[in-house]
Amino acid sequence: MSPASFTKHYAEPERAAGAVRHYRWLTAHAKPLRQPALHTAGPRFLTFERIAGRPVRPEDLPRVAELLGHAHGAAWASDLHSASLDTPHHFEDGTQFDDYLGPRKIALRRRHEQGYLPNKTALHAMLGLLQATAEGPCAFYKDSNPRNFIITAQDIVAVDTDDLSLAPLGYDLAKLIATLHLTYGPLSDQAVTTALLAYNAAARRYDARLGTTDRGQLDSFLGLHAVLTAPYVGRNGYHYSLPLRFTHRGAS
Q: What is the rounded CA–CA span in Å between residue 12 and residue 8?
């Protein structure tokens, strides 16, 4: 392996193949995202260009939010304008691009089984919240946490394409906000609002229907992420927790 390369290993060939498929889709349809060059794709490993830099910090949030807005807008214009949040999309080779609702319903039920949701009432509230957020144009979710971007002296580079699914606009921005909170502690209300404004302004450049995520929608996404990320508190550099809320828009 060259000193300028980084190799990621996978337990199953299917995971490696999926990461390559996601990488190529993002390269084709989310052109504003710079990714490291993919040098080699083996059956259980991928070798990438090594990028020197650091993970995202809270002060980087407006820049990364703007980048996500551009990436989501470009992907919608290129491919996702015909997608629906409750129906799997498909890659060029016919393999499935997971929908928004199905995998998250499974994940929320698993959180209930694991004890992160205290009872079935809380589970039903979170399932209702999930359903209420499944509206509007489609974006993609790539697990935007601070480690999945590298801040360099000149650029922001997106790494790790293990996860990719459909999601509403703003959902992956909420993941970044949630995981910055988990890593560094609560962000100020002004920091969150500034990031949302930057995201919306960038997305809106691709179509007038984009870039309309409001603070209520963002808070709903944060409520979902609080439950979905709960098992990782205390791991992966997540030293803080997000408050769990078991109501959704329109509920008493």
A: 12
Is 237 part of a structural domain of the chain? no
Domain for residue 98, yes or no? yes
Whether residue 186 lies inside any domain: the answer is yes
Half-sphere exposure of 210 (CA within 13 A, CB side): 27
Q: The pTM is what?
A: 0.94
In-domain check, residue 147: yes
**Dihedral angle over CA of 54, 63, 185, 52, nearest 10:** 0
Q: For tokens 């996860």, what's the residue?
A: 163
For the chain, give the percent of residues with pLDDT over 70: 96
Q: Are 75 and 207 in contact (CB under 8 A)?
A: no
CATH classification of the domain holding 161: 3.90.1200.10
Q: What is the mean pLDDT of residues 74-89?
A: 96
Structural domains in the chain (count): 1
Angle between helices 189-204 and 215-228 (to 10 degrees): 110
- Least Cα distance to 8 among 47, 53, 43, 50 occurs for 47
Between the alpha carbon of residue 89 and those of residues 21, 99, 104, 169, the distances in Å are: 13, 7, 16, 16
Q: Each residue of 135-178: pLDDT tens digit?
A: 999 999 999 999 999 999 999 999 999 999 999 999 999 999 99
User: Which domain, by its residues, includes 135?
Assistant: 50-230
